[in-house]
Structures are given as structure tokens and as C-alpha cells.
Write a structure and sequence with these properties.
The protein is of the alpha+beta class. It is built from five helices and five strands; from the N terminus they run βαααββααββ. Strands 1-2-3-5-4 form a five-stranded antiparallel sheet. A hairpin with a 2-residue loop joins strand 2 and strand 3. Helix 1 runs antiparallel to helix 2.
Length: 157
């Protein structure tokens, strides 16, 4: 029995990849994604590559994935339905709070902010995005969060 709330047919997913929870890994995360998406439209590959960088960097910066010496980040990739590519990044558990777009900023603060725009990019570039707990039970809330984003591939069936 799977503990994940989403079931994805095996024939429509790539093997999950696990990376050490360090920002140094981001170039490897992007390179692996480009390799996995070989043959897809180059614009789509670049868009998903940018989003995976932002999502994985958030996992490293804001969760136990980057705070603990053995922290990890998992990247999963699947075709969730015909013409839709789903990217999922899973962290090792909350250190602060769930991923979200900062809402308590003035226009001036947004203009000068050096951080906090990653999920805005994901929101702007994907057809949909969101989060869910890795284990959907209240007493397991600290075990990790999956951040997902979906992209239209331009292909049908």
C-alpha cells in the first residue's frame, strides 16, 4: 500500500532522483532534468528546469533537507494526464512552515526584495502548482512536503 496520496501509472513516470540537500547540487538537478526530458520541446525543458531549480532551492533553504547533514531532496517527474507533465519536489520535513508566496509585503518591499520570488516564478510558468504533505496524517505533518507543478506539453494522448 502506498503512503502517497497520488497514484501515477508506472508507464508514465521517470525514476525518482534523490539529491543531497545542498545548493551546490542545483546544476546536477537541472542537468538530470534536461536529460530526462530529452526530446521534449526546448522551451518546455527550459521552463521546467527553471522551476525545478526554484523548488529544489526552496527545499534546501527552508526545510530539514538543507539544515541537516544527511538532508535530501527528491525529484519526481511524470505525465499525470495526456499532454501534462508533472514535476514534484519533496523535502525532508518542515523547519519553518509550508511553502507559500510571501503575502505580507508592500509594493516597495517587493521591488527591493532579494528573496521570495521563486514560487511566484513557478506560479507564473506552470499551468497549476501546489503542495501536499508526504504523509497525509496530522501526527506526521513534519515528515516532508511535496511541492508540485504541472506544465502543458502541447501533446495529446
Amino acid at each position: 500500500m502506498s503512503i502517497l496520496p497520488h497514484t501515477i501509472p508506472t508507464e508514465h513516470r521517470w525514476p525518482a532522483r534523490i539529491y543531497p540537500g545542498t545548493l551546490v547540487q542545483m546544476s546536477t538537478v537541472r542537468a538530470d532534468l534536461r536529460s530526462d526530458l530529452a526530446g521534449f520541446d526546448e522551451d518546455l525543458v527550459e521552463t521546467v528546469s527553471l522551476c525545478v531549480s526554484e523548488m529544489a532551492a526552496n527545499a534546501v533553504e527552508h526545510t530539514r533537507s538543507g539544515a541537516e547533514p544527511d538532508g535530501r531532496v527528491l525529484r519526481a517527474l511524470s505525465v499525470s494526464e495526456p499532454g501534462v507533465l508533472r514535476l514534484v519536489v519533496v523535502d525532508d520535513g518542515a523547519r519553518e512552515s509550508s511553502p507559500k508566496i510571501p503575502a505580507q509585503r508592500t509594493e516597495q518591499e517587493w521591488t527591493s526584495a532579494e528573496r521570495g520570488r521563486g514560487l511566484l516564478l513557478v506560479e507564473a510558468l506552470s499551468r497549476a502548482w501546489g503542495t501536499y504533505p508526504v504523509v497525509p496524517f496530522p501526527f506526521c505533518a513534519g515528515l516532508g512536503t511535496a511541492v508540485w507543478a504541472e506544465f502543458t506539453t502541447g501533446e495529446s494522448s
